[in-house]
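Annotators were shown the component list below and the corresponding predicted structure, then asked to write short factual statements about the assembly.
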Amino acid sequence: MGAPGQWQVAPDAGRPYGRACAHLDLLEEGRAVPAPPSAGCSGCLPRGLPWIRLRQCVTCGYVGCCDSSRGRHSYAHHVESGHPVAVSLAPDEDWAWCFHDEVFLVRAGRNAADRRPAGHGTDGRPPWE
Ligand SMILES: [Zn+2]
Ligand SMILES: [Zn+2]
Ligand SMILES: [Zn+2]
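Structure shown to annotators:
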């Protein structure tokens, strides 16, 4: 167990245990990423598209929409940039997703099940969807 506030890989329903993420240190620093603009998804805004939830890249601070949104700009940003990890910006969510390792990340000391967004990661679907 690490220090409180440290991020760790969380077991996720439907996914094999023991998967590692090599980007946790990135996430620690990521919380110091410039505060996201509250405006919304960088990809959707110029196009006038709606989005559902926002994710922020911890490498560069890019804000994009989730995979349930039409634009899927957070994922698109990962593909384009190779930046591996994004955190959820939803006020009721406190987790991150590593695109590279496909693991669900939570802060140590939190009950992952409690923090998991409703209906996400509980039925075998990745929390990203
Ligand atoms: Zn990773
Ligand atoms: Zn978008
Ligand atoms: Zn990025």
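Statements collected:
1. The first strand starts at residue 7 and ends at 10.
2. The chain has one domain: 7-12+22-115.
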